[in-house]
Known about the structure:
Elements: E1 2-7, E2 10-14, E3 18-21, E4 43-45, H1 51-54, H2 57-64, E5 67-71, H3 72-82, E6 86-89, E7 94-97, E8 100-106, E9 117-123, E10 126-130, H4 140-146, E11 151-155, H5 164-174, E12 178-182, H6 194-201, E13 206-207, E14 215-217
Helix pairs in contact: 4-5, 5-6
The chain binds nickel (II) ion and manganese (II) ion.
Amino acid sequence: MRVRYLGHSAVEIQGSKTIYIDPFLSGNPVAAVKPEAIRSADLVLVTHDHEDHLGDAAPIAKQTGATLVATHEIAVRLEQEAGIKAEGMNMGGTLSFGKAKVHMVHALHTAYATHPVGFVLELDGKTIYHLGDTALFGDMRLYAEFWRFDLAFVPIGDRYTMGPVSAAKAVEFLRPKKVVPIHYNTFPLIEQDPKRFADLVGRTAETVILAPGESLEL
Ligand code: NI
Ligand code: MN
């Protein structure tokens, strides 16, 4: 499975299914791809309706025929307004798409409408947690009892999400094998040195710092 960081919180997962999470590409100064270049996708997951997460999710779902997955309220609105295929769900729930499983989990953040979330994805024997935008919360320890994370995408930008110190604590709670820092250096307001985060994580997990466009194999 190949996992590519597209910049900010946007990621592309290519295994037996092609999945995009929070594809904010137009208007994203560090985006690695243009939304028009995405021609095939099975699922588009959206953590919340802030512009830097909802981004190009609807146009990508429309042009690829992918199913958009979000909280019920966002799914209903986009299905009506954008004419796309959407599946609504809520925190605590799981949706299966063939062999892929999408679990919607808690995130501690705000949004225009409905509650922000994170996603735990099970695909091809791997478990990936995209935290979305969130503060640190103690139930991350509980998630580590439920799942063995092969990879976690953790926001480190501070101001709107965890900063490096709380993000490193999140890694201690979650105990993923690998962690990729996200949601930093897109704009001046969220400037961070990812190496500082890597130092704080230490040997708790393997920190993989990906520049937008770079990928890793799982
Ligand atoms: Ni947000
Ligand atoms: Mn954000």
